[in-house]
Fold this protein.
Amino acid sequence: METSPLLTVIVPVHNRAAIVTRTLDSIAAQTLRPLRLIVVDNNSTDSTLRTVTEWSDAHRSEDFDITVLTESAPGAAAARNRGLAEATSEYVMFFDSDDEMRPDHLSRVAEELQRVPETDILYFDIAIIDSDGWMRCKSSRDENHIRAHIFHSILATHRYAVRRSLINEAGGWNPDCMKWNDLEMGLRLIIRAANIRKLHGEPRVIIHPTEESITGCDLLSRHGLGEKALDAMEQQLRNAGHELALNWIDCRRVILAADYRREGGRQQAYELLDSTLNRNQTRNQLKLRAIYAVQRLFGHGGSALSAMLFKEKKPRKKKHAL
């Protein structure tokens, strides 16, 4: 390629022969050039690797560099790290193999990164489309990035571009996190980033949730894995001295417990709820019980109540002597 790309897109893939070309086609249709795409096959047992290889041979060009790699260590985190090690561009963007992006998405991202070159992380809203074809926007207006990420996953895998040097400094993806590894990774990035900005506008990334997706459509079937990610996040916050955010992690735990209960996991819900309450003082226990009850009853609302009950204390105004 005559000019080095500003951005590399990294896509891990596992047993996606039937649908991966939808994702790849949406990347090939991007108006941004030059562009580099790295696809990492992670132990696929179907024809995924052959499908991706044939697709890359048909679409590779002077201004669209495509690399196909394999990673034998299991898990999306390991595959993403393999792709990250191959990238050389200033920024990288990770993407899942069952989603798609509108043709102008990467151009909008690149234009904003060039406009504000000190940007470390640029995140954006996404749209989720269900099996009936209904689409809803997933967005957050919370200006506290740590809180917004804990409750609304503003740095979910497909929601941001990041400076490559920053993600390397943060240690890359954690292969020990087999669920919510993007939640754990995103928090490490936010803690270290000096400049985080949001790209406003209509969502240009379309998410197609399926039972076979990396995160899945339920929580109970992978019970215990989300808790491990939250434990790792708690340690990161302790190391960084973010005391208030530790409360938000406990809020996230009781929200998870409520979701377990809604999915029929009575024992799993109560075990997580009890262990979370036992580590807190009485005043916080009452708040956490209220959050659990709201989430358990309505299936949403726990995050909003958490932000309301555990918020920054405003500094008291000093009284001036007469």
Notes: The mean pLDDT is 93. The chain is about 45% helix and 15% strand. The two ends are 72 Å apart (CA to CA). Residues 202 and 284 are 38 Å apart (CA to CA).
